[in-house]
Amino acid sequence: MLNFNKTKDGLLPAIVQDYKTLEILMLAYFNETAWQMTLKTGKAHYWSRSRNALWLKGETSGHVQLIHAILVDCDGDTVVFQVEQLGDAACHTGHRSCFFRKVVGEALVTVGEKVFDPESVYGK
Amino acid sequence: MLNFNKTKDGLLPAIVQDYKTLEILMLAYFNETAWQMTLKTGKAHYWSRSRNALWLKGETSGHVQLIHAILVDCDGDTVVFQVEQLGDAACHTGHRSCFFRKVVGEALVTVGEKVFDPESVYGK
Questions:
Q1: What is the pTM of this model?
Q2: Which of B64, B17, B55, B50 is nearest to B35 (CA)?
Q3: N or C: which end of chain A has fewer CB within 10 A?
Q4: In A, residues 64-83, which contact B (CB 8 Å cutoff)?
């Protein structure tokens, strides 16, 4: 169904989108194990490139992503996860979406909503 | 503004979204040259990994993507291009979106709209 041989590291990108509003929440990478876990559990799993480990999104924050639909692209090397974002925030900064900044001329302007305080969720 | 050193090849992913409907149209990669050309011209430019060349999206089909807004993620290594898709189709298969297939059990089911016939646009 997917072409995990497309990249050397076997990782493919998943675009994560709110299933109702269609807002793009984040982009993360997954390998075949994470893909199988996502299909099996109905909760988005990724491969953390920084921790080099399987990552159930929300395992620390509780902000799990419940899968409503998965779309696959023409090449079979990118997917869209349409999810219900528990806790209303996908970004570790506390913003609803990781894409909370907009290019305005030469600057980045914060336009996205901050939903929680990261320190209270992740500790210091 | 962006961290082009994040990856070895200097390529970052751009998620392309219809600026009105918020439908996700495609994902493509860009380098610093393509980024500068996008900002300068207001038309989405990418780096073609298959052709290893700068790529003005729509240069063959005429299906140019006019930039309405650019969002940048928390890490500065992924962007969202909110675009007006000329020709109403982003995918080289003739579908409006590259994500025209949905996972249903063990199968992929076509759910996306086909807008043009690729042979008539690109030739055989």
A1: 0.95
A2: B55
A3: C
A4: 69-75, 78-80
